[in-house]
Amino acid sequence: MTTAPIGLSPETFPHQLNPDANTQLIVELSEQKYQEASFLDDRLREPGKLERSAPWPDMAAASTRLSSDRYCHWIYHIGHVGSTLLSRILGEHPALFSLREPIVLRQIAQSVIEGGPECRMGMLGSAADVLEVQCRLLARTFRSEQTSLVKATSFASVLAPVILRREPRARAILLIAAPQVYLATILGAENNPRELLALAPLRWRRMQAMAPALQGERLDALGPGELCAMSWAVEMAILGLTAQAHPTQCLGLDFDRFLHDPRASLAACLAHLGCASDAPTLNALMSSQHWGRYAKAPDHAFDPAMRQHLIAQTWSQQRPVLQAGMTWLDRTLRANPALARALAPFMA
Q1: Sequence-ordered list of residues with C-beta below 8 angstroms from that of 145, at least 6 positions apart, any chain
Q2: Which domains are assigned to the chain?
Q3: CA–CA separation, 26 and 43 (whole Å)
Q4: Is pTM beyond 0.90 here?
Q5: How many angstroms separate the Cα of 84 from the Cα of each of 101, 124, 193, 337?
Q6: Consecutive sets of 10 residues in the chain, 348 residues long: mean pLDDT of each?
């Protein structure tokens, strides 16, 4: 692979930020590597892979040289609701270039959650300015007819309102699930509870800001089901607020409805993104190799029937835990009208 100038080609992927050194890591990626990657994070960093650190002023300057015609579409989600599958399938459309979970969005989101929307990221400058540079760089595509479709990490949805306000041409798919489904999905899978615990402090900070009645409660007092319910509520709330603020830019999509009628759901997504959704195009997407595979690890089989079995099994085996979560959610929504209003777009 030839080394591309920073900012001119997606072959130079903007990886991790180093606020203390005022640099950003650049990893060289082929189009095939983008297609294969489930996560554009540290799992990209393999022995022998070409990478280098670039001075942040050079990154910012490079972003200003990009065409203003380039922008990103987005997939925001609450976690473990099929966003990787949707990203992979939509990425097979000739007009879309899919990127999954760039690590830099996590870094910016964490800074905003911990320091507020006006926070600074060390020597890099304000989080808002850093985000603007990254959005320009992520908008680069391999072909001129493509538009980037970026799937963000679940908690990076906090950036959605700012991103959509800055770029009116951008469209977002908001991928959701019912609470009883989400809770069973998280508690029924081997690795999900560990991720739940790791993200809990960030989510609790956001939850308390949206639900003042929780100010007296402690995070460590929540059981597994209640922790799941809190996570569902806080991620759903930011998507709801985003949909209310930018209704024409957002399309809500329940993952179970997607699985029930994937062809109609794909057609709706493509229409929302301004992409062709004629019969031959949909036929090609419906023939994708990703159906029936676990999208984050395509070597493993996983289909809707297996998913439904897992959900039913988890409810059978952990009903008291799950019911405790549902009860906590109902009580919390009743005590916090603002939180309930944030969820309103998805509660019909």
Answers
A1: 94, 95
A2: 12-346 (3.40.50)
A3: 14
A4: yes
A5: 9, 30, 19, 32
A6: 60 96 95 96 79 93 92 98 97 99 98 96 97 98 97 98 98 98 93 88 94 92 97 98 98 97 98 98 97 88 92 97 98 96 87
